[in-house]
Amino acid sequence: SHLIKGRGKDQHGARSQRSQEADKPHRKKGQKKYTCDECGKYFTHLGNFKTHQLVHSGVKAYSCDLCGKSFGQAGTLKKHKVIHSGVKAYCCDECGKSFTQPSHLNAHQLTHSGVKAHRCNLCGKYFTQAGTLRIHQLIHSGVKAHRCNLCGKYFTRAGTLRKHQLVHSGFKAHYCDLCGKSFSQAGNLKTHQLIHSGVKPYICDLCGKSFAHPRSLKMHQLIHTGVKAHSCDQCGKTFARSCNLRRHQDTHSGIKANSCDKCGKTFSSISYLKRHLRIHTRQDVYCCDQCEKVFTTATQLHHHTFTHTEERPYKCDLCEKTFKAPHSLKGHQQIHTRRKLYKCSYCEVCIYIFILYFKPDCLEQLCSLNLF
User: Fold this and answer.
1) What is the tens place of the pLDDT at every residue in 236-264?
2) The CATH number of the domain where 187 resides is what?
3) Pairing mode, strands 118-119 and 98-99
4) Are strands 202-203 and 210-211 parallel, antiparallel or unpaired?
5) Do 136 and 69 belong to one domain?
6) pLDDT tens-digit profile of 43-55?
7) End-of-domain residue from the set 87, 120, 141
């Protein structure tokens, strides 16, 4: 025999390759041995590890010739281009929603499972995917590194900034086939279409008011908290939401750049103009069943209904003056509190004025005519 006694040795006494391999500390199948120093992510294969490191390099050499978006890997660009083809071959059996990538379908299907295994340790909110949790945690960091160069607004994510910039482009490719309203994003169109369905499954447990979207319910519930953290530095009026404060502050500027092309009426905010236009279209309006007068909001209609009664049950406890409506009483009481409501740009005198009867533009018109 050419083999010398002693298992695994050849005639020269050298251990066979198989024997040497057997003595090596074996890595279990699926064990991840490559760790990224930047983010701590683990990888099983060296190739995948090297590909991942391109993410941190910031180099995006592969650009989409259709939309200009760039990618670090050729494979990612190839996957992205499927979006432009319009082909969505992967369909969810539960809800029928279709996707361009199988990974997107798999991620979506977790929403139907109801399992939310990823918890935010700062606010306790749960998520179905780890990636969604990471995105959410950016909110707590307070870091908003992505700035819109058109309006100066900051965002936590580049994707959110890109979506926001569609607003400035004025391009609205998504149309509602029921009312013709257009949107810059498909998601906003879907949210809008819930209005037409008439389904309002989200109900406020305090007042019973129902909403088509959970976000609308959440914003509504701020009213019941009574907390109005956003205050106007010109008149002291407070608001539950910052967007309402910004819209209100436009009234102090006196600038009404948004004009109705049907009647010529001007508005300080585009949202006020849009609301006004509903009077002309007769869509989503509130009509008084006693005089058939039309209003753009339910609140305006509610205030108007008080004009049809002669009763004055709301009494001021300081001067005993009576009013038909609670909002009229509230406006009157500001005379007694002597809050500075508006500053006239004509005479530079702060005037304590009854908010219910006079608005800032009325005040300035009267002052310019020397009626005070």
Assistant:
1) 888 888 888 888 888 888 788 888 888 88
2) 3.30.160.60
3) unpaired
4) antiparallel
5) yes
6) 888 888 888 887 7
7) 141
Per-residue pLDDT at 337: 65
Q: Per the domain annotation, does 18 fall within a domain?
A: no
Q: Is the pTM of this model over 0.85?
A: no
Range(s) of the domain holding residue 324: 314-368
Q: Cα(325)–Cα(336) distance, rounded to whole angstroms?
A: 18
pLDDT in tens, 197-209: 888 888 888 888 8
Q: Quick check: 254 and 364 in contact, CB under 8 A?
A: yes
Write the CATH number for 356. 3.30.160
26: its two tokens: 């074996």
Task: Give how many domains the chain has, as a whole number.
Answer: 4
Question: What is the helix (H) or strand (E) element at residue 323, kind and residue range?
Answer: strand 322-323
Question: Angle at Cα 294 formed by Cα 288 and Cα 300, nearest 5°?
Answer: 80
40: left (phi over 0), alpha (psi -120 to 50) or beta: left
Instruction: Report the chain's mean pLDDT, rounded to a whole number.
Output: 76
Question: Could you tell me if 203 and 269 lie in one domain?
Answer: no
